[in-house]
Design a protein that fits this description.
The chain is an alpha+beta fold and 107 residues long. The chain has three helices and five strands, in the order H-H-E-H-E-E-E-E. A five-stranded antiparallel sheet has the order 1-2-3-4-5.
């Protein structure tokens, strides 16, 4: 391999790890499977769901979030739980720039 093409390959690999876009979040999770998180920050850009936890880890918390990815990986459903009771549900679109758009705001 020539040094120039090796440099390009190295740069592309580095870019892959440095700029993990929002689309990657949808690809890291099985569609339709609930994932649990301590927090949910939809205004974060690029949005990343953070460290997933199992149900037993979040069950003891006062507040936790359940996120379910759509089969397309372009939408998520977020259920908010307080004292282990579902309080509300919101749906978001995963935008190409890594941000989220609340579906109710998009109507």
């Amino acid at each position: 391999m020539k040094p120039k093409s090796r440099l390009i390959n190295t740069a592309l690999i580095a870019l892959f790890f440095i700029l993990p876009g929002q689309a990657d979040a949808g690809e890291r999770f099985e569609p339709g499977t609930p994932y649990y998180f301590d927090s949910f920050e939809p205004a974060r850009k690029p949005w990343d769901p953070g460290q997933k936890k199992n149900y037993e880890e979040v069950f003891k918390n006062y507040l936790f979030f359940e996120i379910i990815f759509s089969p397309s990986g372009k939408e998520i459903t977020v259920n908010r739980y307080i004292q282990n009771n579902k309080k509300d549900r919101e749906q978001y679109l995963l935008n190409p720039d890594g941000s989220l758009t609340n579906k109710r705001d998009n109507l």
